[in-house]
Design a protein that fits this description.
The protein is of the alpha+beta class. It contains six helices and 19 strands.
């Protein structure tokens, strides 16, 4: 009797529950809609890992077979994606203002907007090419920027206003100094060179003008092998050595279609040829007949060939007047070398076609007497 009493309520509850379960329709409200399918783990992985966007999923379909390999486990997907996210270190301070990006840094996860403000880069106005006037006789000239940096410790040994220099070593044309590519350079004495420049309304380049040109060329990347100032070395042109910095013509060079190592470029893009090698060029000193004396207020050391960084004798004073800007620059960097001389001698700079490592922008010989006729002419104005 007790069993029957228990069974009856149980049946009543079951019937009532069944009635509630079937109160509504058990049919699908409609056919599967477009795009209701699911992306595979492989597609999700490819999108997160390499940005491959999967096609829109088709209609939902009942699987026709047992699931196959998913290629990647969820642990593999997480570990590989996290490893990439950990390499992304950008924050809003690193991204340009207004640019939206996805940040993966803790505490800033999600879409962010950059706040970095980059000031505009100052653009230097190009220096116009020099205008050759009808009264500017003597062939081709280039404009040299004067050194206006008053903070330069060697400022006193350079020219502060722009001036012109012959583009090529002077040639003798109709008994006058003429700057052109053709013809052999004119080799005469320093006093005759000075007179030749005066005859065309110019003057033989001075020590200060030469150093202004030297230091300007030294700071132009294209004048260095490899295109980086201070790396490798400067081009020294026709020097008797066929290497990265120079070439060996076997004699004095001239003409067109030449080795470009003979060409150097000023900071205003003007080009000057054979400044570093070919023939040693006279430059005018302060004393009578352009002799050395105490040009620059220093006593020039005597003796044979020295590197510009030698300490015995010390060339620190001489380097300020006609040497490279950095103590570490020597003939290894294509600078040329120093040869000392007496106060009665003259300045001959650049180096000759057979001087090899002694040749360069800062090559300097002080052992030549004013009577010598083996110096080249380069006029300034």
């Amino acid at each position: 009797m007790k069993k029957l009493m228990i069974l009856v309520p149980t049946l009543m509850f079951a019937v009532g529950f069944a009635g509630m379960a079937v109160a509504g329709s058990v049919d699908s409200p409609g056919s599967p809609s477009g795009g209701s399918g699911m992306y595979s783990l492989a597609q999700i992985y490819d999108y997160l890992n390499s940005g491959i966007v999967p096609p829109s999923p088709d209609l939902f379909q009942e699987p026709g077979a047992a699931p196959g390999s998913t290629m990647k486990t969820t642990k593999q997907i997480f570990d590989e994606i996290k490893a990439k996210h950990d390499q992304c270190l950008a924050t809003v301070a690193d991204v340009n203002s207004g640019v939206t990006f996805f940040c993966t840094q803790p505490g800033s996860w999600g879409v962010q907007t950059g706040t970095l403000v980059v000031p505009p880069t100052a653009t230097a106005s190009p220096t116009p090419a020099p205008t050759i006037t009808p009264t500017m006789t003597g062939g081709e000239w280039v404009l040299v920027p004067g050194n206006t940096n008053t903070g330069d410790p060697n400022y006193a040994y350079q020219v502060h206003s722009d001036f012109y220099v012959m583009k090529y070593e002077a040639k003798q044309v109709s008994s006058k100094a003429y700057s052109q590519a053709a013809d052999t350079p004119w080799l005469i004495s320093i006093s005759s060179a000075a007179a030749a420049c005066t005859a065309i309304g110019a003057h033989l380049c001075t020590v200060k003008e030469a150093q202004t040109i030297n230091r300007n060329l030294e700071q132009v990347a294209s004048n260095w092998y490899g295109g980086i100032v201070g790396t490798n070395g400067m081009y020294r042109g026709n020097c008797g050595l066929a290497d990265s910095f120079g070439y060996n013509k076997g004699n004095v060079d001239y003409g067109t279609g030449r080795d470009t190592k003979a060409r150097l470029t000023l900071s205003n893009t003007q080009e000057i040829w054979d400044w570093s090698g070919n023939v040693g060029e006279w430059i005018w000193g302060d004393a009578t007949d352009g002799t050395i004396d105490t040009t620059g207020g220093i006593a020039w050391d005597t003796g044979g060939w020295y590197e510009w960084n030698t300490t015995s004798p010390s060339l620190s004073e001489e380097r300020s007047v006609l040497g490279p800007s950095t103590n570490s620059y020597t003939s290894t960097q294509g600078m040329g070398q120093y040869y000392g001389g007496l106060s009665t001698n003259t300045f001959r700079r650049g180096g000759r076609w057979m001087d090899e490592v002694a040749t360069g922008c800062f090559g300097l010989e002080l052992d030549t007497s004013p009577a010598s006729t083996n110096g080249g002419v380069r006029c300034c104005r």
